[in-house]
Structure formats: structure tokens, C-alpha cells
Amino acid sequence: EVQLVESGGGLVQPGGSLRLSCAASGFTFSSYWMSWVRQAPGKGLEWVANIKQDGSEKYYVDSVKGRFTISRDNAKNSLYLQMNSLRAEDTAVYYCARDQLYLGGDYWGQGTLVTVSS
Amino acid sequence: DVVMTQSPLSLPVTLGQPASISCRSSQSLVYSDGNTYLNWFQQRPGQSPRRLIYKVSNRDSGVPDRFSGSGSGTDFTLKISRVEAEDVGVYYCMQGTHWPPITFGQGTRLEIK
Questions:
Q1: A100: which chain B residues are within 8 Å (Cβ-Cβ)?
Q2: What tens digit of pLDDT does each residue of A65-84 get?
Q3: Cβ contact (<8 Å) for B31 and A110?
Q4: Could you tell me if B35 lies within 8 Å of chain A, comparing CB atoms?
């Protein structure tokens, strides 16, 4: 059974940093692109970033470029999102998803809440 | 960036009646390989998103056949033939043709009338 479990969310002050993790199991992690998608409270879905199987390609939405870094450790079956210079507008539930690229995420985690507030 | 526009944003439906959600893209979603990467997601209250349909009309495993997708170019539709109580939630279209960025519609909230 495919499982994606996010962790690392919490309350952080504006300008602060947070690192999200996503532990994957039930599939060959190194064979899939992976994505982060976020959802602000009461709002819709916003794609944040994705990463190729070997980590050689990474893409970001403009609003997080230069502040967020997506990475992965295939030996640990884990996906990460390093978030720096956080802003109030980054407040959201962050989901990791197994990415079928053009087809979107076919499996999603339960999400982890990030709150940026003083 | 490709803008995805859904309508209606709110959809009250009587149990057992059909429902239809429209999704329009700001440019054609036909990719150079001939495929059209328009996908639909369902998000039930308090749950993570779940993909229902990929490449316009292909249902994911386990998705009831009362869900169907159609369309081409820039105009797409998700139809539910007979709405059931478990269908309550928000539905999103998503384009994967012109990325980055991958973009979603605003969402359509389906509720039981």
C-alpha cells in the first residue's frame, strides 16, 4: 500500500525557516517524480515544487523561488521541502504527492500545517 | 502561466440528480505528443485531494463509473450521472501540459440541496 506521511509543520515567525519531510513507503520511491502542493486555509490547491527521480531537475512556482528548496533522499525514501524567509502568505497545509508529472499526483499524504505568524 | 477557470464555484445538487462542472483553460492543453493533460481531483471535507480522472476522460482505479470527463482544447467538463452523498466536496481541474507551473482551477464546491 502506498503511503506518504508528512511531518515538520508548525508555527514559525515571519522570516523564519522550517523543513518539511515526507516519508514514502509501498512503492519504489526512486522511480517517481515527487511534488509539494499547498492549500491555504479555506482556499484552493497550489502546486509548489516538484523534483525528478534522481534529483537532477527541480521546478518551483514563482512565489517561492529563491526561498524554498525541494530535495530528496532515495536511500531513505524521503522527500523534503526547506522553507526559508517565510511569509504570512505561506501559511497552508502542505501535501506531498507522488507525481505522475503531466497527470498530477496519484497518491497524496495527509498534509502538514505550516502557520507563519508573529 | 495557464489560467484554469471553473464554473460554477458552488453547485447544490439533489441526491440522485446529475451534476456538471466546467473547466476552461487560457490556452489549448494539447501537448506536442498529442495528449491533453487535463486532470480532475476530488477533495472531500477534511481529506486530502484524490485524483479522479486523468487525460480528460480516464478514470482512476476505484473511481465509480458515475464520474466521467470530456472535452478538448480549452473546454472540459466533469459529469456525475447521479450524485450520491459521498460526492460532497470540492472538485478541481488541473493542467499538466504547460508546466512549470502546474496550475489548478479555483475549485467547485458540490453540496447536497
A1: 54
A2: 999 999 999 999 999 999 99
A3: no
A4: yes
**Residues A73 and A87: beta-carbon distance below 8 Å:** no
Can the peptide bond before residue A41 be classed as cis, meaning omega within 30 degrees of 0? no
Q: What is the mean pLDDT of chain A?
A: 97
* Residue B105 touches chain A, beta carbons under 8 Å: yes
Q: What is the mean pLDDT of residues A96-105?
A: 91
pLDDT at A101: 82
Q: Is A1 exposed, middle or buried (0-12, 13-18, 19+ CB in 10 A)?
A: exposed
Distance of CA A56 to the CA centre of its chain: 17
Q: B35 vs A110: CB contact, 8 Å cut-off?
A: no
Cβ atoms B48, A109 nearer than 8 A: yes
Q: What is the pLDDT of residue B11?
A: 98
C-beta neighbour count of B95 within 10 angstroms: 28
Distance CA B97, CA B95 (A): 6
Peptide bond before residue A14 is cis, with ω within 30 degrees of 0: no
